[in-house]
Amino acid sequence: MIRGTLFVALSLVAAAAAAAEPLRTAPVEMRDMDLTYTAEAVVEAVRQSTVSAQIAGPIVDLRFDVGDYVKKGQVIARIDERAVTQAEAASVAQVREAQAALANARAQYERSKQLLAQKFISQAALDKAQSDYRAAQARVGALLAGAGAAATERSFATIVAPYSGMVSARYVELGEMATLGKPLFTGFDPSTLRVVATVPQAQVAAIQAGARARVEIPSSGKWIDVRNIVVVPSADPRTHTTRIRLELPEDVRGVYPGVYARAHFVTGSALKLLVPRSAVVHRSEVTGVYVVDDKGEPRLRQVRLGEASDENAIEVLAGVRPGERVALDPVRAGMADHAGSRP
Questions:
Q1: Who contacts 195 (Cβ-Cβ below 8 Å, separation ≥6)?
Q2: Which residues are 213's β-sheet partners?
Q3: Distance CA 35, CA 200 (A)
Q4: CB contact set of 141 (below 8 Å; sequence gap of 6+)
Q5: Could you give the CA distance from residue 95 to residue 110 in angstroms, rounded to a whole number?
Q6: With CB atoms counted within 10 Å of each terminal CB, which end of the chain scores lower, N or C?
């Protein structure tokens, strides 16, 4: 009982101390801001690929899983290579046999030339020896190519990352049978991301003239300056829209292919009435801000918002005037407003 009473007392003291602290406020400002055209978009990877098996066999080693970062050249999986190793050994043995036959055919051809000079054999016999020699050379060349192909096929048992990136999907389990062409992993390079937006053709000229844009990621609240804007030189004849690619910086983190985004294209500039985003409070269907008067008392005032200006400020169309101050902590302001309204 004593502990409970002490806890309540301490809580009341802390609440009183918090209430005694002045509310942090910011002014409502009229600033020259960019006019933007906003389009829905999606994040995609410029470099994304699926690694597939090039030989058949059971998978004996899996070294990475979804979400792991892999460096270029690292081994990501191994397939049992015993069958292809035996095939390579057989090819090497055939090459050695053919090389021995070639040495014999060469010696026979040299002897035949000497015998022809001494008139012991006919020209036809020399031609036969020469033909056998050339056939032996061709056989060695063919078998060497086959041995090279067998060695290349054996190298396919070790799957390495073609570039540095992140694993986004894994399609196999350890011990599973890999077949020719079966997908194993899908990965993407997080340093080469872009956002693709679809805009009406009527907006393309203004977007090209502005040549600036920012990308908003609503799921994480991030705003990103794009490196480059590329208008795809084609249009959809049914919807009369054009795709625009926006390249993201290499150091973007926490953004993945398929994430929903908004592209804000700069098309001009104008004066806008702005309030900080953190000052806006939503209560049921009412959107408002707490306006703090000269006495430091906050009062909730309904506002009508315009478009998002940036990650820090938002446009207000009605409800406040320039120079008024709004509370940056609506929760504390609401508590103070409620306490001040008590009789």
A1: 41, 42, 43, 44, 215, 226, 245, 246, 248, 261, 263
A2: 265
A3: 17
A4: none
A5: 22
A6: C
Task: Quote the CA–CA distance of 207 and 211 in Å, as a whole number.
Answer: 6
- Helix/strand/coil percent split, the chain, to 5: 35, 40, 30
Q: Tell me how far apart the alpha carbons of residues 207 and 58 are, in angstroms, rounded to a whole number.
A: 53
**What is the Cα 252 distance to its own chain's centre?**
10
Residue 22 CB partners (closer than 8 Å, separation 6+): 296
Residue 288 parent element (H or E): strand 286-292
For 256, the enclosing helix (H) or strand (E) is none
What's the CA gap between 40 and 262, in Å, rounded?
A: 5
Which token pair is 165? 């990136």
Going by C-alpha positions, the residue among 162, 276, 142, 265 that lies closest to residue 215 is: 265
Residue 65: phi, psi to the nearest 5? -135, 180
Judge if pTM exceeds 0.85: no
Query: Cβ–Cβ contacts within 10 Å for residue 72, how many?
Result: 11
Q: Residue 194 belongs to what H/E stretch? A: strand 193-200
Residue in this structure with the two tokens 């090209």, named with its chain if needed: 208
pLDDT bracket for residue 89 (50, 70, 90): confident
Cα(194)–Cα(45) distance, integer angstroms? 6
Neighbours of 69 (CB within 10 A): 13
